[in-house]
Structures are given as C-alpha cells and as structure tokens.
Design goal:
The protein is mainly β. The protein has no helices and 7 strands. 0% of the residues lie in helices and 53% in strands.
Length: 96
Amino acid sequence: MIAPLAVEVGRPVRFEGYAEDYGVPIVTVQFSLDDGENWTDYDVSGSTGDRWVHWIFEYTPEAPGTYCLLVRSVNERGEVSPEPDTAAFTAFAPEG
C-alpha cells in the first residue's frame, strides 16, 4: 500500500516503485484506475530475474474526486501478481 496523496486537478501526479518476482523476469508492469476493469502496460521486457524492475506511472486527474491506482506485474510465464499494490489519492479543484 502506498501512502494516500492529495493532488490538484489538472496537475500530473507521479508514482514510482519497484517490482520483482523471485528470480523470474518480469515482462510488464500494469496499472489500472478503474478497479482492474482495464490495465495499461509498462513494458519492462528487457529485465532479468536477478534485478528489481523500476517503474514510473504519471497521471493527470481531470476532475475532483477520490482515485485508486492498482499496480501489478506480469512475469515471463504470464503469471500476474496475486495481489496488486494500491495507491489512493484525492484530486481537488485549484483555489481561486
């Protein structure tokens, strides 16, 4: 779980982290903002099983509200992380 954030509508928020799969190369890190209905891929197919994969995801909220980013990895066997990490954030309208 990533600590909750408060961000301004129309300004990008950047998330980053690391993924590893105990010796099995990760080929993609996936992100979802609709509770896992749809996933966006971040290709890391050049990774190896002996190093952590660094990932970055940037998102600009267009409306005020509460959001939940899900993050998971997929290894070269096609296996998906059993439980995605989550990052909750609230977007607020700018003052003035």
